[in-house]
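Here is an idea for our session: we take a single protein and study its fold together. Once you have written the record down, we can walk along the chain together.
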Amino acid sequence: MTLTQRWPEQGWALLQLLLMVSVSQAEEMECKQRGDPENPQLSKDGDIILGGMFSFHSTWRDRQDTYMHKPLSLECTSLHFREFQYAQAMLFAIEEINNSTDLLPGKSLGYKIYDVCGSIARCVRVALALANGNEIVSASSEAPCTRPAQVQAIMGETSSSPCTAIATVIGPFHIPLISHFATCACLSDKIKYPSFLRTVPSDYYQSRALAQLVKHFGWTWVGAIRTNDDYGNNGMATFTETAQQLGICLEYSVSVFRTDAPDKIQNIVDIIKASTSKVIVAFLSPSDMDVLIHALSHHNMTGYQWVGSEGWIFDSQTAAMDRHHILDGAIGLSIPRAHVSGMKEFMLDVRPLNSSSNYIFTEFWEELFSCKFNHSKSSAGNHRECTGHEDLTGVQNSFTDMSLMPIFNNVYKGVYAVAHALHNILNCDKTCNSTVQLDPITILQHIRKIQFKTKEGDEVYFNENGDPAAKYEIINWQPKENGIVDFVTVGFHDASLPADKQLNLRNKSIIWAQNSKQVPLSVCSEKCPPGTHKILQKGKPVCCYDCLRCAEGEISNITDSITCVRCHSEFWSNEQRNACVKKESEFLSYEEIMGALLTVASLFGTCMTAVVAIIFFHYRQTPIVRANNSELSFLLLFSLTLCFLCSLTFIGRPSEWSCMLRHTVFGITFVLCISCVLGKTIVVLMAFRATLPGSNVMKWFGPAQQKLSVLGFTLIQVIICILWLTISPPFPFKNVKEFKDKIILECALGSAVGFWAVLGYIGLLAILCFILAFLARKLPDNFNEAKFITFSMLIFCAVWIAFIPAYVSSPGKFSVAVEIFAILASSFGLLICIFIPKCYMILLKPEKNTKKNMMGKAAP
């Protein structure tokens, strides 16, 4: 049936009801209560009344309202002994204060405690009842509609979501609401919740402490489950934010509520099964944890490391539910352990509760002692009959379990905080001033300022947000042989300390999942060792990455490095890529084979030149020596000796002096050498011209002119070298670009123009000498020296033409070797081509070493 189809039947009925109400209001202008009255489940008269709100039942029965009649009152189900314990703690504190002569002397505290069944709607209704009183009013009562607050402060509720609703409703009335277990950080907002205070730390600190705990054990890949209410959602949001800052990633984050449908619970189980993370952070209330454990037990999902909030981590009832050891080894934060003398005995003395005629205690008593009263509606089955005088001795259930004493202590401290504020307001000494008019806003202001110590020495105060100091114990679930879980304190967390000292753990005493002694591993990717860096996997969180080896010349010396650092230009990465090592310096040295061979060749050429010089000196009077201009020959041999020796300056570690010396000495000695050859070539040509009739050319190129020409040609090269050294001389240079992993020690040219000017001048003289020698090669002499000079110049030019591309393309020290080879090859070419034939003639063919033979007149 659609809404329009139902309108004729239900719409008109509602319209008639509204008309009747309007007529009734017009007829009766007197103040009357609308709706059903709310009566407290526990109450006691006193001079000052405190309110209490606890969920004696954890849930309620669903029903579908038809709007055809007045909705029935909420039907609460699932009796919850823990909340009775909280109420008992409140009663104990009130009883202790009433019996005290030091606190509120002459004044008695009363109470009105309601069962809100965990329903937010009921919480709001009860809050209004406590604020203005909506109990049944007798017909003769003429009480005005507007009255002062019925209670001076409210203790409760246990959960965060109900507290947000209650604090919103009573906030404008400034009635203090003091919770013992509502930890949502959202409640610290004094603009939204100006009258809210609590004796339990805010999740603002707990969430961060949990993130620090997870980071401490190296878990960077975790799952997260939260209660789908203000407590779980806000707590997990803060945890997620802090976790991201600490480099922790959430593989999944799901919410659960105890009233969720089975298929939604199964979906959460499937998500956990499919996950790769082995650590689960659970921001859950005990009742929601019980529902999840029940589902996980069906699948025997053990082996996960649970990290818990204070909501369930030290709850023995939750541990009793875990019959399949799902949570063995769990670790988490709890409120520090506490002891309040006399509270346990008071709470276990249930006889005062039996004096109440309220129906809730019938249910409580029957559930506590597993019996039934005769008048009970549910007195059926095999239960024994209740007498009302049962003894708790021997009863083992959640009511007799005192493991939640820290929370009971929070209730106790909340009541005492109100009492101390009232004590100050009423100016109590031996007696209290009864003329002082109490109002909630004054009480709230005094509660915020109070600071006192309980009889056990616990300091109680509230900060500007209405929160206490954030101190936690770190609890570890350690299963015993009898199946009972022992909650072992393995560390502490104090948010008031510096960040690096807040977490204090004793790792040796921790038992992990599956009774392991080793810290479980839960990472999306293994740590990247030094020498590698992280590369994020596409489409995945930052905790999922591949480890890529650093490139050559780059290193990473820490684990999980994000990037690789490039080494300094004079350093190179080692094989492991985790350290920069100084590059190997490379230069042509005497110790290596190539350097040694070139040195030997240089010395061999020097010695060979010396031998030739000795031969020539010994046979200096012979025609062949005299005919070839002995002075230029000796000068040529001297220059060749310098040419051979100058190659040694190219070997060894380059220095400032060696760099300048090697190129200048090479340039000058080679010009001297070529100048001598050029002079000998010109002498040959002049000598031929002198044999012609009437020729007088030799007087223009005699010995003096020959020496001057050699000096002139050499002086030009000296000037070029001086200019080069003055303007931009060669200098030692570390070439780090030629090779990646080594430094080439070489001599930079300084001025490239100067270098090529030196080589160009040598080449120019060599080409000129070659041309003149070539022209004189066929002159009619028996021993024409121009032929040997032509061949020697041909070798010389070929060597140096080949040198240029070889020098440019040779890497590192090989370019130096090429230059030395060119020097030695051209020097050997000159020595062998010009002097060896003459030595052969002098030593092996002395019969031809005659003047007649030199003149071409010897007998055939």
